Amino acid sequence: MTPEPRVIICTGSPGNGRDDLLYQMREHATFNYHHLFEYIVNEARFDDTNLTKLNILDFYDSSPQRMQTYHKAAIHKITQEIDRRPGDHIISTPLHFEWKGNRFQGLYEDEIQALKPDAIIIIFDDILRVRDRLSHDAQWQGHTFTLGEIANWRREEISLAYNHAKLFTPRPEVQLVAYENGPELLQDVIWSHGREKVYLSHPITGENEVMLNNIHEFGKTLSEYYVVFDPYMIKDWNTVEAWRRTVNAAIVAGEPRPNKLNFTMEYKTGAIREEIDALELEASIKNLRFQIIDTDYKLIENSAMVVVYHPRAAISAGVMCEMVYAKALGKMVYVYYPYEPSPFFEWYATRIFSEEDELRDFLIKNSKVTGQTPLDIYTGNAPRNS
Q1: Are 142 and 97 in contact (CB under 8 A)?
Q2: Distance CA 190, CA 198 (A)
Q3: Is 6 helix (H, G, I), strand (E, B) or coil?
Q4: String of DSSP letters for 79-135
Q5: pTM over cut 0.85
Q6: Which end of the chain is least crowded, N or C, by CB within 10 Å?
Q7: Which domain does 368 fall in, by range?
Q8: Which of the listed residues 165, 190, 215 is the one where a domain comes to its end?
C-alpha cells in the first residue's frame, strides 16, 4: 500500500533564506517541491498577465481580487499534485509580508485548510543578514528596510504559523529552524528517523567563540541519536550581546551612549564586520530581545528534553530560566556541570553529571535510537524495541 503523502509548509518571511536552504536540501533529500510564487506566475500567464519578481508586489497592491484568483488557483493545482504524487510535499511561501504600507498574507485560512499540513516549519535568520539579502534581491532592493520592520515581519510570521496550526485537531507540528544551522538540521527536523528533539541549553552571554563552538561540537556528537536545537544558531544573540557590552562599557567609563555599534558577526561561512546606527538599533532591540526569548521557549516546547551544557562555575541566568521553564512543562533536564551545584540549580535538574563524557554516554545509551528513553528509567518500563 502506498503511504499517504506528507505535507510540510515551509515558511519564513522574505529575506530569511528559506528557498536557499530548500535548494541545498534537495541535493541530499528527495521530495516534491512546490514554490507558491511559481504556481501563481503560471496561473497569471493563463490569464495573459505577465507577473515577475519585479512587478508581483505592486500587483498584490493594485489588483487584489485578480491576485486572489491566481492565488487560489495555484493552491488548487498544488493540492491536485499532492493527491497524484506519492512522497513528501514541501510548499514554500512566506505567511506574512508588507508592501507600501499594506499587509499581505502568503496563505489564507481556507488555503491552509485545503493543504492540510502535517507540519509547519518556520525558517528564520538574524535581522542583519535578512536586511542584506533584501538589499540584493531584485524584488525588494528598491526599498530600504529598518531593522525594526524586519523584526516585526518575523514576529508576524511566527504568530501566523501558530495561529494556522490551531485550525486543526490534532494540530500539525510547528518547528523553528534558524538559517545558520544549514540544510542539515532542516532535513533532520523533517526526517527525524525516530530521533527525539533536544534543546541544548548553555551560557551565551559573556562566552567567547571558542567556548561556544566547543558547546556546539558537543551537540553535534549527539546528532546521530537526537535532533539537536542549539540556541546560539539564532545569530541575533550576537547583535544583542555586542550592544549590551558596548553600552555597559560606556556606562562604566562615564561616557555618553555610543551613536554607532561596530562589531564582528561570526557565521559558519566566516566573520563579517558590521556597523549599525545606534538609534535604529535601539528602536528594535527590545523587540529583538523578546523574540530571542520567545523563540528559545518555543524550541523547548518542541523538544522532548533539555540538555544543559554548563562548563563554567557562575550560573547563567538564561540557562536557569530555561531549566525552570522546561520543568514547568514536565520535561527532563539533564545537566553537565563540573562544580558543586547550588540548591536551586540542583532543584530544577533531573540529573547532574560532573563529566561531559558521562552525560554524552547516558544520552546515547538511553535514546530512542538505541532502544530506551530516559523517561523509561524512572517509570520502570521495559526498553523499547523501536
Answers
A1: no
A2: 15
A3: strand
A4: HHHHHHS-SEEEEE--SEEEETTEEEESS-HHHHHHH--SEEEEEE--HHHHHHHHH
A5: yes
A6: N
A7: 196-379
A8: 190
By three-state DSSP, how is residue 355 classified?
coil
What is the enclosing helix (H) or strand (E) of 261?
Answer: strand 260-267
The conformation of residue 348, written as its DSSP 8-state character, comes to T
What is the CATH number for 65? 3.40.50.300
Which phi and psi angles does 328 have, rounded to 5°?
Answer: -65, -25
The residues near 102 (Cβ < 8 Å, ≥ 6 apart) are 60, 61
The single-letter code of the amino acid at 278 is A
pLDDT in tens, 78-123: 999 999 999 999 999 999 988 888 899 999 999 999 999 999 999 9
Query: How far apart, in Å, are the Cα atoms of 333 and each of 38, 199, 212, 359, 382?
Result: 45, 10, 20, 11, 21
Please give the residue that has the higher pLDDT: either 93 or 138: 93
* Residue 202 and residue 290 share a domain: yes
Q: What is the pLDDT of residues 222-233, one digit of tens each?
A: 999 999 999 999
**Is 105 in the same domain as 220?**
no
Grid cell listed for 366: 538511553
* E strand or H helix at 148: helix 147-165
